[in-house]
Amino acid sequence: MTVSNPTHLFISYATEDAALAGWLARKLAARGHPVWFDQMKLLGGEQWPQTIDEAIKNRTFRMLTLISEHSMRKQKPTGERTLAQRIAEQRKIPDFLIPLKVDGSELDWLTTTVSYISFTRGWADGWRGLLKKLDSISAPRSLENAAPLAASSFPRGEDLVNDTGEQLLTNVIKVKSFPNILSVFRVSGSVESEDWKRLERAWAFYEIAKDALVALIPPPAEFADRIKPTPEQLLWTECESFRNVRARDIAASLIMKALSRRLTKGGCLEHPNPKLKETFFLPESFVQGGKLSFTGYRGKKTWLLIRGRVTFRRAAGVRELNFHHFAFRLRLARGLGKAFHVQLTPTLVFFDAKGHPILDKSVGSRRRRMTKMWYNDKWLTRLMAAEQLLTGLPPAGEDDLVLEPGLVSLASPRGLDEAILEPADEKEGPIEETQDAELILDEHGEGEADE
How many Å apart are CA 20 and CA 25, to the nearest integer? Predict the structure, then answer.
């Protein structure tokens, strides 16, 4: 039976965009709009249509189609858009199909002539644009008890949880061993600034005073005439402070300097922003072919591209080519016991088309635009790549520390059925797309350049 006064908003999407589609369905329903969304029934007491075609032809006021690289190449959303365009022509409703642009993918022939609403700057921004459009065409808001109805659609999650338990991975590595006894050295001659920089790169030490340094081993031979050992030693595990400095802070500083030296000697580069001394990135030449290999969370070998390319679209349609490099930040984790733990945080370092580092405040926006759609699996794989890189590099000196391989894990008595959460066609593979990405740069409220 044909409904002469269609009231529903039909949401067409690819399974990869289900999170946004579900969010939209609940937001619209909470506002009072009847919604057709195949994962939940928000039609109140009305009879449920038997087929999608019937829902589109007989119940749909407008179709909201999520345009993404996934929906553009999948049969189901493409078929829905084709049917919507046919209905638009028959009923002479030019905007029967309302495209919602999710990423930088190009529109197809079905949607190029239709004005789209961009969600590429964020869901909140897209939501405001969608509401403006719906109000301009007087979209029906006939749902009663709209907010409770939308809330009741949330899954309770009983089907996701099981009692088999699982291991939860953290973003920290345990320091397996670090010497307890530190030696004090006296600076007996002048050390020029350039020599001091070379000394910092080659030797892990803590400056306890202008003429006193604490370290595990003697300095390089070229400094032996200016930096000499003393009988004084520091057992940092047995004392609270040494010369008014907390003993554990001295050890922590030496650990971070030893790790920095290990990474730079292994071919990693320090962040071009001098304020970010504990952030490192990989040059594309770090490994042949520019692909960093590691073992993924499923225990299989995988890889990621060390350097990716992205084109940012700025105001007035200006396009700006950037390169982004795999990077990570080191910190010492706190509150995990007496042992030291190193915390890893994946990040990105950006360069312009000429190879110059981007260090101004816009770097925060660039990083957010690149990572906003990284879900747990992508963060975890990059985290595992950084861990295996750090623990796999050879010691950079006799005073280097020993790290426990692998991320620290925690046992949970309950677990999640991950298979339910994954799209049916998902396969493990490289986590970095090889094609170029194109994103809109958020140039409003750009935030700080620092991490």
Answer: 9
- β pairing state of 241-242 and 245-246: antiparallel
DSSP code, position 289? G
Per-residue pLDDT reduced to its tens digit, 131-190? 999 999 999 998 888 888 777 777 666 667 888 888 899 999 999 998 888 999 999 888
Q: The dihedral of CA 49, 50, 56, 62: what is its sign? A: positive
Q: What is the 3-state secondary structure (H, E, C) of 411-422?
A: EECCEECHHHHC
As a whole number of angstroms, the distance between CA 330 and CA 346 comes to 9
- Residue 395 is given by DSSP the state P
pTM: 0.68
Phi and psi dihedrals of 182, rounded to 5? -115, 145
Length of the chain, in residues: 451
**Alpha helices by DSSP H, 72-145:** 75-91, 123-136
Q: Where does 205-345 have alpha helices with state H?
A: 247-265
CA atoms within 13 A on the CB side of 301: 3
CB 32 within 8 A of CB 86: no
Express each pLDDT in 423-449 by its tens digit.
Answer: 444 444 555 544 467 776 766 544 444
Tell me if 36 sits within 8 A of 59, measured CB to CB: yes
The answer to whether 259 and 390 have CB atoms below 8 angstroms apart is yes
Whose structure tokens read 């030797």? Answer: 203
| CB 309, CB 321: distance < 8 Å | yes
Q: Tokens in use for 222? A: 């070229």
Answer yes or no: are the C-beta atoms of 134 and 11 closer than 8 Å: no
Residue 302 pairs in a beta bridge with 294
Phi and psi of 107, rounded to 5°?
A: -70, 155
d(CA 289, CA 364): 29
